[in-house]
Structures are given as structure tokens and as C-alpha cells.
Amino acid sequence: MLDIIRPGDPAYRSVRHVYTATGSPAAVVRPRSADEVAAALGFARESGGPLAVRSGGHGISSVATNDGGTVIDLSRLDAVEPLQDNLVRIEPGARWGDVAAELSPLGLAISSGDSGDVGVGGLATTGGLGLLGRAHGLTIDRLTSAELVTADGTIRTVDAEHEPELFWAIRGAGANIGVVTSFTFRAARVPVVAHATFQYRVPDVASFLRRWGETVEAAPRTVSAFLYLLGDGVALATVVVTDADAEPALTPFLRVAPLLGRHVQLTPYASVVTATHAPQTGQQRARTHSGLAVHLDEPVAGRIADLVDAGFGQLLQIRSAGGAINDVPPDATAYAHRHQNFSITAVAAPGRTDFDAAFDKLRPALDGLYLSFESTFTPQRLLEAFPPTTRQRLRAVKAAVDPDDLFHQNFPVSAH
Ligand SMILES: Cc1cc2nc3c(=O)[nH]c(=O)nc-3n(C[C@H](O)[C@H](O)[C@H](O)COP(=O)(O)OP(=O)(O)OC[C@H]3O[C@@H](n4cnc5c(N)ncnc54)[C@H](O)[C@@H]3O)c2cc1C
């Protein structure tokens, strides 16, 4: 029997909201198997109203809850099972911090992101730009097969031999295609990482960014680096190196700008990405925009500096891409952005609609976007996430497996 939580049930409070939004669904179904996911889809169809699919509830797009509809909450499907040959079967409701904790004692890791509370399902169906990205690729690049429940309730195994088009599509646009109930990844051998944090004084954002960008691009691919511009002339960087002998790779980062603080430790990857499992109450409501860039050169750095000066107050993050991520051909996965070296994300309070116009001034200098960091789905944003040939191919896949467009909640390729 399906586990269905409705308003008034004691557990309702703990399942109605997500990290980035509050919600009032009529029913939250918590399946324990792929068969139950298929049954939950049937239940949602019969019930009518909106549908939401939820894994870890950390979607920036805030569509993993709704008002008056059905939420399929995959949190009970949270197994992490190491197999042989560094393969690992992981269910979508697991959090990346839990995955890292399970794999670290085996000397293994899968690059995910900078937050251990992010769910496996949402991230592993869009990309996964993480702190091992330049060394080991996007999360989706380590996927060898998946179990997928499509709109008609069919449970399919998708990999390079079986249903290759579906396998291509779920690596970048999974939310359009169905519900992934199990992922098999090939983990990388990562016994230890050097985890460095640098706090910089940044009197001039544009020139700092140019130097930062050059330093990252010149670094060996064992280095991945995330930068957080905090405003008030301060930036914080996390740099992860997959070599135990990290000093040569880290030294150039000491020279990017005057340092206010620094810390380096050799540690298992699991201590870099930890899960808190904090209750979700819509505590992180925000307006978020994303863009990718090949270099942090003058047009990009100057416009980011203008955005910082405009003072939207929350956060501007720049993540390294490149390295192993760009070894993958653009048509190998539905995430097509394989020549950019940086991902830029700006976050503002939800009420700041003037933020959209400010970020739009940066967009002409950008090159595509990563949909997991964008909270608006206008036609232009869709085109930036899925370039024309990718979008055309996705629409063909979708027409075959989801002709009624059941899965249209998150960056819907069928729209417009
Ligand atoms: C604090 C924070 C830090 C982050 N850092 C990073 C980072 O460093 N790198 C990075 O790449 N991303 C990062 N992200 C973005 C993150 O990858 C996405 O928001 C992702 O969607 C979250 O996954 P989830 O399972 O928690 O989300 P959910 O909110 O549960 O799901 C988001 C959407 O994904 C789809 N979906 C979820 N599960 C499935 C499934 N099993 N099958 C098919 N579709 C599904 C649904 O449309 C759902 O609405 C971060 C997000 C946050 C909030």
C-alpha cells in the first residue's frame, strides 16, 4: 500500500516544504520501490492537480513542492550500495554528503557539489558541478546506467546499450523524461584531498576576477575551485586538490590578491561535503540566475563587478568547470556545455525583481547556462540551457516517452 501523507497527518509538517519554497500539497506519496513510483504516478494522474517530483528538496527551481497537488517524495529511496569495480548504486533520495561518507572509507568519491544536503536525484539528472569536477568530470559523466520510470509507469533500465537516447536525455534533462529511481555511477579513486580555503581582500573586483580566472585555468586539472564574492571587498575561495602533494598547485592561489586568511588540510572528501539533514521549511527562498563563461576576461569580469556594485546583497559564486568536464563531447549528454571554464551564479532575495535586469546586463558576455542554478524558465533561458540541436533531440525523446507532457515542471523542453 502506498504511503500517502495528507494535510492533518502528523508527518505532513515535515514533508510539505522544501529548502527553497513552502508548499501545501494535497498529498505527499513516499514510494519505497520503482513499482511504487509507478503507482504514485497513477495516483497523481487520478488525483489531478499539479505534480512535483522530489529527491533531496534542494532544487533552486523550487518546483519540488506545490499547492493542492501530489508530491512524489523519493526520500525513502536512499540506499547507497558499493558494488564491484568502483561501481556504486545510489537511490535518488540519498544526499551527496551521505554518499561521500559511504565511499570515503573505500578511498572512493563521486564529484557532486559544495553542499552535502543536496539530493542525488535533482543534481544527477542535470549535471553536477562539483569540487572534483576538473579532475573527474560532472556527476553525470560518471553515470553508467539508471533505472527510470516513465510517464506510462514502465520501469526501464537505461544505459549506453539499452535505450541510449533516454540515457543521453537523463544526463542533463532528467526531469523532462521521467523519475530516476536508481543510478549506477563509476566512482573515482580519491583517497584524500587537500582542502584549502582562502579569504581575499578584494579592492577591485574586476581585476581580481581576471587574475582568479587565469590562475584557475592555469592550474592542473587536479584542482577545482569555487569562489564566493561576499561583498564589502571580501571573497572566499574553496580550492580542492586531488593530489596529496598539493603545495605546487595551491601556491599560485596565494598570489591572486592580499590574503585575510588561509587554511589547508589533507582530509577525506567526505569532510568537504557533509550532510546536516536539517528540516526543510522554505528557509532559502531566493531568486537565482546562472550563466557559463569560457574565461573570466574583461567583458565578463567587468560586468560581474558591476553586478556586485549594484549590491544585491546575497551571494555571487563562480565555480570552475573545464578539465575532465570538457573532455566529453557536447552531444554525448543533454548537458551540452563542454567548452566553458566557469559557472557564475548570482543569488538575490526573492522580492528583488530589479535583480533580473541587473543580471541581464551580464548575460551578453555569457555562454549558456546550467539549469540547476537558474530559477526562471523563460524561452530565452531554455535556449541557453539547451542549445537548438540538444533541444530538438530532447523534444523527439520526449514525444516518444511522455507525449502528454506529464513531466513539465522543471525547464520544460516542450514549452514555447
Ligand atoms: C545549497 C545548494 C548548493 C548547491 N550546490 C551545487 C553545486 O555545487 N553543484 C551543482 O551542480 N548543483 C548545486 N546545487 C543545485 C542542485 O544541484 C539542484 O538544485 C538540484 O536540483 C537539487 O537536487 P535535489 O534532489 O535536492 O532537488 P529536488 O528539489 O528534490 O529536485 C529538484 C527537481 O529535480 C527533478 N528531480 C528530482 N529528483 C528527480 C529524479 N529522481 N528523477 C527525475 N527528476 C528529478 C524534479 O523536477 C525536481 O523538482 C546546489 C543547490 C543548493 C540549494
From TrEMBL:
This is FAD-dependent oxidoreductase. Residues 21-190 form the FAD-binding PCMH-type domain. Its cofactor is FAD. InterPro entries: FAD-bd_PCMH, FAD-bd_PCMH-like_sf, FAD-bd_PCMH_sub1, FAD-bd_PCMH_sub2, FAD-linked_Oxidoreductase, Oxid_FAD_bind_N, Oxy_OxRdtase_FAD_BS. PANTHER family: BINDING OXIDOREDUCTASE, PUTATIVE (AFU_ORTHOLOGUE AFUA_1G17690)-RELATED, FAD-BINDING PCMH-TYPE DOMAIN-CONTAINING PROTEIN. Belongs to the oxygen-dependent FAD-linked oxidoreductase family. Gene3D superfamilies: 3.30.465.10, 3.40.462.20, Uridine Diphospho-n-acetylenolpyruvylglucosamine Reductase, domain 2. Pfam families: FAD_binding_4. Keywords: FAD, Flavoprotein, Oxidoreductase. The keyword Endoplasmic reticulum does not apply. The keyword Oxidoreductase applies.
